[in-house]
Design brief:
5-stranded parallel β-sheet; alpha/beta; 5 helices
């Protein structure tokens, strides 16, 4: 059975996001093991300089990299990444699994994005949208797409 690890910066604070994450993890249990790994976020001072923002990304990136093992296939969520529709995303994941990638990690950065060291470690970058989403909501969107992909792979009905 494939394992998905969602590596993310920060904690979910709102109960409705937490409930949605729990629901999709429960739904995914038929198809894969899903683990959420959170690393602490750094506070960004109001009016932070680019150098301060880079330092924050670096600190958060180091925390994320410590959670990545050599056995993981790593997909970083990044605005410059490749975009998929749901069927193509499902096919892409299936191809990864067929190539022996049984542990897929997806990395969600904090409010400032991911440090270049995390992007360099990633096997690929994926963009879910050119729009910016709160990282708490992005977890729900990602889990929903993993669930949808799993259903598509098995020929099960899903909403189009």
């Amino acid at each position: 059975m494939v394992q998905f690890t969602i590596l993310c910066v920060g904690k979910i604070k709102e109960k409705y996001f937490t409930d949605a994450v729990k629901e999709y993890i429960k739904r995914m249990s038929r198809y894969a093991r899903v683990e959420i790994v959170e690393v602490p976020d750094e506070k960004t001072p109001e009016g932070a300089s680019e150098a301060e923002e880079e330092q924050i990304r670096r600190i958060e990136g180091e925390r994320l990299l410590k959670k990545i093992s050599d056995k993981m296939y790593v997909a970083a969520l990044d605005l410059r990444g490749r975009e998929y529709d749901s069927v193509a995303f499902s096919e892409h994941l299936e191809e990864r699994m067929l190539r022996g990638n049984s542990h897929i990690a997806v990395v969600i950065g904090g409010s400032l994005g991911l440090h270049r060291d995390v992007l360099d470690r990633a096997d690929e970058s994926i963009c879910f949208s050119k729009m910016t989403f709160p990282h708490q909501l992005m977890r729900v969107i990602l889990l929903e797409q993993l669930y949808r992909a799993s259903r598509i792979q098995r020929g099960e009905p899903y909403h189009k």
